[in-house]
Amino acid sequence: MFDDKSIIIGCDDTAVLSNIQFVIDDIKSYNLNTISITNGSNLFSIVKSMEPDIVILCYRNNYKLLPELASLSKEKKIPILCYNKYVDSKSLTEFSNGIIFSYEYEHINKQGYVKSGIKSVLRLAERDSPSINVIEDSNQIRAKNSSRYVLEIDQKNEMLSKVKHRIKTLYSNVNELVRHELNSIVNSIDAAALGKNVWEDFKLYFEEVNPGFLSKLSHKHPELTPIDLKYCCYLKMNMSNNDIRQLLGINQESVRTHKYRLKKKMILPKESDLHSYVMSLAQ
Fold first, then answer.
1. Nearest residue to 151 via CA among 103, 91, 192
2. In this structure, which CATH number among 3.40.640.10, 3.40.50.2300, 3.40.50.150, 3.40.309.10 belongs to the domain 4-127?
3. Shortest CA distance to 281 belongs to which of 227, 206, 226, 225?
């Protein structure tokens, strides 16, 4: 049986609201109950009384509402997906007392992107379910930071992909020398998307939440490549094949092939489940 989850959508644009609702209706792995609120002045009181699993915020001016919502988000552990008209470097830090995931407003029209964000936050909430042991609170905060970082990588890579596409459209309009320079820029973008620094930064977040996982995995299977280790990290975070495909920049068939090759490298029985095996490490 699917879990019941509640989502409050704060939005003052009917077309955008319809688009978000369509995305939510297409998520089949949960029973999602939604409430739409067009009047921002009523949002805080409704969120406070209902304590939903997610708040999706896409008003014309979200920043008028975020101070109160951020405090409530921290107190009640309610994540907020915030789609802003204008995004700057303060968007993820100005309201750091809340669980805020900030995106450019144009992403609201990309149904796959919105769907991936909602599902990632729902999975995060499942990992951070209340525990008797209060010491887990710090791990919950680290888990949120780790998942936020993954979503930021996803957003960055999508932006870089758009820049690459734009550059490639210019190829036919320039001479060979300029085309060569443009190609160098595209190669630099590819390197940045999968760069070593990104991986090293991600490992810092990941190892705070899953201490010993990567060292144990590398010790048991020293033949694993950095891409293999990334794949295993994403499995450990309960990410779907589609999420992994987007983050690694590969297609669905490549995801399945990678999974098959990983099992062979690890010398796992054919009938064994890779996800279950990865989840069992460093527990």
1. 103
2. 3.40.50.2300
3. 206
CA–CA gap between residue 92 and residue 100 (Å, rounded):
7
Separation CA 251–CA 27 (nearest Å): 20
Q: What would the pLDDT profile of 228-242 be if each residue is shown by its tens digit?
A: 888 898 888 877 787
Q: What secondary structure letter does DSSP report for 210?
A: S
The type of residue at 117 is G
DSSP letter, residue 282: T
Neighbours of 61 (CB within 10 A): 12
Which structure tokens are listed for 93?
Answer: 């830090």
Counting every residue written for the chain, the total comes to 283
Element (H, E) at 29: none
And the tokens for 160?
A: 């870089």
> Tens digit of pLDDT for each residue in 114-159?
888 888 787 776 655 443 333 344 444 444 455 555 555 655 666 6
Q: Which among 31, 33, 25, 29 is positioned nearest to 51, based on CA atoms?
A: 33
Count the Cβ atoms, other than its own, within 10 Å of residue 150.
21
40: DSSP letter:
G
Question: Would you give the DSSP letter of residue 224?
Answer: -
Which residues, in sequence order, are bridge partners of residue 261? none
Task: Tell me what pLDDT residue 141 has.
Answer: 46
Q: How far apart are CA 260 and CA 236, in angstroms?
A: 17
For the chain, domain boundaries:
4-127, 155-280
Q: What angle do CA 227, 230, 232 make, to 5 degrees?
A: 115
Helix, coil or strand: residue 94: coil
